[in-house]
């Protein structure tokens, strides 16, 4: 009945957080104590809850029991399916309180907020340049190392970033995935479309 009434009589003696069931307090206390009693038999990574271990184990077994009803893509965790479903529905439940822009994932909203706060927590060890996300830093670092891990399987040309390889591939296929919403023109690269869009503004 406590689920319906909202009653939470069991409190954590370390932080005061309240729960409806005593076993939930016991599991919660592990956050404070650092106890992780559920260990993976394959890689020995340990978890606070058994459910987390069960979800982790699927990364080893390859099991993907959660399937999208729209496109059939499968996932190892139900949360991943929930996030994926939003790509079909367009749902953006996380909204920026400053500019009202919506996001499908809470993590994307957190990153977006850094732009408002002018936070750039990721710094290049070589030149000191700072970035909003770790992925932007990783892409930048390749400019110093010369690393080009993304290679075209048709001509062998290599690129620093996967999106640059994606743009390059259409030169082989002739595909023009970037369409103008105002006229019938299509382009192989997003930068070409952006340049074209300026012609509609003049």
TrEMBL record:
Subcellular location: Nucleus
UniProt main location, coarse: nucleus
UniProtKB keywords: DNA-binding, Metal-binding, Nucleus, Repeat, Transcription, Transcription regulation, Zinc, Zinc-finger
SMART domains linked: ZnF_C2H2
A GO cellular-component term linked to this record: nucleus
BP terms from Gene Ontology: regulation of DNA-templated transcription
Domain annotation C2H2-type: ranges: 10-37, 38-65, 66-93, 94-121, 122-149, 150-177, 178-202
Any one Pfam family match given in the protein's UniProt record, by short name: zf-C2H2
Protein name as annotated: C2H2-type domain-containing protein
